[in-house]
Design goal:
elongated; 6 helices; 233 residues; single chain; disordered C terminus; 6 strands; alpha+beta
Length: 233
C-alpha cells in the first residue's frame, strides 16, 4: 500500500511538471529520533517482560494469575523499569539481568504450553518479548539422573558480543513499544540516536536562463522535493 501511494504521488507531480525525466537528482538523509525512551540492554529486557505481562493481564487475567507468582512479579514489574536507579556496578547489575531473562523464558514457556490459549502467543508484546530474549540471552538446559531421580539444570545468561555474538544493529530491537526504531551512529562526527533515518531525494532542473539584457540574478538550479520515506535500517 505504501508503494501504491508513492506511485500515485509521483504520477500526480509528474503531470503538474514538478518532476521531469532526464534531470539530475541528489539524495541525502537525516536522523529522526523515535518517540520512545532510550533503554540500555538491562532496561530493555526488563521493560519487555513488563510490557508482555501488562498485555497478558489485560487479555487473560485469570490465566496469568494461575501461571505466575503475582506478588513477586508485581514487585519487579509494577513500575516502568527505567523509573528506578539501576545498580552502579556491573556485578550488581548482573543479578537483575539474569532474573529478567529467567522470567522471560518462564513467561514464554507458559504462553507456548499446550494447555495455554493459542491466541496468547500472537499478542504483539509476546512476539516482541520472544525477539528480545533471542537477541539478548542464551539458555542451556542439562539433565542428569541419579538414584532414579532426573535432575534438570537450567542456566540463563546474557549474550556477550565477544563470546556469543550479538545481532547487527539493523535488526536489533531497542524498545518494546516501537519495533521499527534502531540505534544508529554517523560515521563522521559520532552522532548517535535511537530512531530512524529520513531519506530525501531532490530533483534538480536545468539552470534558469539569464535575463533579457544578459544580466540579472545568477542562474541557480531549481530544487524540487521528491520522494521521501522512513527507514529503520
Amino acid at each position: 500500500m505504501e508503494e501504491k501511494v508513492l506511485d500515485l504521488l509521483l504520477a500526480a507531480v509528474r503531470e503538474t511538471g514538478l518532476v521531469r525525466a532526464g534531470g539530475g537528482q541528489r539524495t541525502d538523509s537525516t536522523h529522526v529520533p523515535a518517540a520512545v525512551r532510550d533503554l540500555n540492554r538491562l532496561e530493555l529486557a526488563g521493560e519487555s517482560v513488563r510490557a508482555a505481562v501488562e498485555a497478558l493481564s489485560a487479555a487473560a487475567p485469570g490465566w496469568l494469575a494461575a501461571v505466575i507468582d503475582v506478588p513477586g512479579w508485581s514487585g519487579r514489574y509494577g513500575r516502568r523499569i527505567d523509573s528506578w536507579r539501576l545498580p552502579s556496578s556491573a556485578t550488581r547489575r548482573a543479578a537483575p539481568a539474569v532474573d529478567y531473562g529467567r522470567d522471560a523464558f518462564a513467561l514464554l514457556g507458559a504462553v507456548h504450553h499446550p494447555g495455554a490459549p493459542p491466541w496468547l502467543r500472537e499478542l504483539e508484546a509476546v512476539q516482541v518479548l520472544r525477539t528480545v530474549v533471542l537477541q539478548n540471552y542464551t539458555r542451556t538446559i542439562t539433565t542428569g539422573s541419579g538414584r532414579e531421580v532426573v535432575r534438570r539444570r537450567e542456566v540463563v545468561r546474557r549474550r556477550e558480543a565477544d563470546k556469543d555474538g550479538l545481532p547487527p544493529g539493523r535488526v536489533r530491537l531497542t524498545s518494546p513499544y516501537d519495533t521499527d526504531a534502531r540505534f544508529s551512529r554517523e560515521d563522521h562526527g559520532g552522532l548517535g540516536w535511537n530512531g530512524y533515518k529520513l531519506h530525501i531525494s531532490e530533483t534538480c532542473l536545468p539552470h534558469r536562463p539569464l535575463g533579457r539584457w544578459g544580466r540579472g540574478r545568477r542562474a541557480e538550479p531549481d530544487h524540487e522535493r521528491g520522494h521521501y520515506g522512513r527507514d529503520g535500517h
